[in-house]
Amino acid sequence: MNVAIMGAGLSGLACAIILERNGVSPTIYEKRSQVGDRFINAEALMNLLTRPILDPIQYFMEHHEINLKPLSHIRTLKIFSENEKATIEGLIGFVNVRGRHHLSFEQQLANQVQTPIHFHSEYTYEQLLHEHSHVVMATGDGDYTRKLQPYTLNTSASLTAATVEGSFNPYTAMVWLNNHFAPKGYGYILPFSEKEANIVIAYPDNVVTANGDQLFQSFHQECQKQLNQELTITDQFQVSNYLIGRSHFPRIGNTLFTGNCLGTNMPFLGFGQFASILSGIFAAYDILGKANYEQFAKKIYQSYEDSLVLRRMVEKLDNDTFDKIVKKLDGPIGAMLFHQTRLNPLRIASLLLRPFMS
Q1: Which of 56, 200, 257, 290 stands the most exposed, by the fewest C-beta atoms within 10 Å?
Q2: What phi, psi does 182 have (nearest 5°)?
Q3: Please, what is the end-to-end C-alpha distance for the chain in angstroms?
Q4: Whole-angstrom distance, CA of residue 177 vs CA of residue 314
């Protein structure tokens, strides 16, 4: 068995780990110069998005022997709208870091891989297909997938973000639903530590807005107001036209599509690292004859469609409606959504909202 993995991101590295532990040494190709060769940013693993798995870190270790260490867990979630605020307590999820950071999930996975990674790779899919028995497409975006098979592109998004210095509770995450600075999108603060955090706004590219820098300046001021302190910007990055979509087929012959090549980036909040890692794991099990990747992908596609319904609903809402929602969340409804239950609130919400999406 001669397996090529095209991409050394979350799904590609997770696939490599499982293959190696079952006696198969894949060949890993990465076009960049190092693992995680991108901007540093914090992301959230929220159990609201991983149900019925309540603790994804424990799940990866106990079920797949993949050891990932988050920066911290989230015990408090604060949600802001223009005029309302909700505070939710509990085991809500984890904060992890991505990109050029020694604790990034990419680097942690790479540390568990024995196979050398071929950096600066210029190999095309067509070349790998002829030289290997299997190809795992794990390039991290849908561009290559769109060339190879039908691909539904649902939206594209812009993100403006900064790393800031200040004083933070590393166990508290903050989210904003406010069209003044995140039109039809959202903003958030995720801490790296007690002294450093990411502040981010994300919104659809098809929104006609003021200059993105002006939106971010407004958000930066809002963050300083809510935290009652000055937040010094030490680094910034901006992403435009970030594609969010999904493939129509999880595999074609002996080519398996994982990560964002499959459709693991969930449209609702944009976080997809849990599903991305899982896709690499189950692609490996399929190659080994231990799982059916098409059956696994059905669950990913269902989660994607559920998330898309909520994304479309958020895009329809104005600030007055956001105020009403956030006010409701500051009580039993919010506690119920984030309680340690295996019920999938995104699935339930999607089913309830679909009749209103026409």
Answers
A1: 290
A2: -135, 70
A3: 48
A4: 9
Q: Domains of the chain: which residue ranges? A: 3-356
In what helix (H) or strand (E) does residue 94 lie, and over which residues does it extend?
A: strand 85-98
Alpha-carbon distance of 286 to 260, in angstroms, equals 18
Contact 162, 199 (CB under 8 A): yes
CATH fold label, 3-356: FAD/NAD(P)-binding domain (3.50.50)
Q: Which of 12, 32, 36, 10 is nearest to 99 (CA)?
A: 36
pLDDT digits (tens, 9 = 90+) for 209-232: 557 789 999 999 999 999 999 999
Distance CA 64, CA 278 (A): 10
Cα–Cα distance, 237 to 42 (Å, whole number): 12
Going from the C-alpha of 73 to that of each of 132, 303, 331, 341, the distances in angstroms are 41, 23, 22, 18
Query: Tell me: the pLDDT tens digits for 37-71?
Result: 888 999 999 888 888 888 999 999 999 999 999 99
Sign of the CA dihedral running 315, 320, 324, 330: positive
In contact, 119 and 215? CB cutoff 8 Å? no
Secondary structure (DSSP) of 210-249: S-HHHHHHHHHHHHHHHHTS--EEEEEEEEEEEEEEEES-
Strands 41-46 and 232-247, how do they pair?
Answer: unpaired
Distant-in-sequence, close-in-space partners of 279: CB < 8 Å, separation ≥ 6: 11, 14, 258, 259, 262, 264, 296, 297, 300
Q: pTM of the prediction?
A: 0.94
Core vs surface per residue 242-277: b (16+ CB within 10 A) or e: bbbbbbebbbeeebbbbbbbbbbbbbbbbbbbbbbb
